[in-house]
Predict the structure.
Amino acid sequence: MIEILNPTMLARAKTTGALVGDILQTLRTRSVVGTNLLDIDRWAEKMILDAGASSCYVDYAPSFGRGPFGHYICTAVNDAVLHGLPHDYTLADGDLLTLDLAVSKGGVAADAAISFVVGNTRPPGDAAMIDATERALAAGIAVAGPGARIGDISHAIGTVLGEAGYPINTEFGGHGIGSTMHQDPHVANTGRPGRGYKLRPGLLLALEPWVMADTAQLVTDADGWTLRSATGCRTAHSEHTIAITDDGAEILTLSK
Ligand code: MG
């Protein structure tokens, strides 16, 4: 199902999106050397519930995970990239952390992710990899608007990632979002322009370019959720929820 939001729901989507952006920024500043991933999860839980919102993750039990997820945020460190299950791990200097958060409030969900390096060490390649996913996300947003097609977004994202030299995995990508977190259409991180669903005002999309430094192959942790690079290389992920407007697209998950 592809959901087109009415103005009332769109207004709520903006509220949810801003909440997601704010929580992620707060958690970013608190994620320092010595922070435990379970602390980040508890802080996320408190901020979500204090805002009168609900987690899209805690009861989530899709076919690709060993559900229910049971936590409020995804925390992926170094070679982990997607669906990182929070566990008892203390962040160290130079860890590359990805936080991915989806929340529902007022009946509308929003989803965003950020990657950053903890502490003062700057491991070679991390900044360029994070920057590539952020530039790919910006490129996808730039071509999103009424009349454009999903393939235009996929092509824009894939062009940036490919030119930066990263292999592109096509198992997991972006998605429609609205009254639930994961909806049609799927937005692959590579594709052909002019193909796929034609975008309409009121459509919400979560765009999420992610890469692994030297492989496109994932392996699943023993926890049944966390996906890691098959080679042990480091990874990065950037995501925003956007709304298609009458003349382009608006990013909903920026922090204030
Ligand atoms: Mg997502």
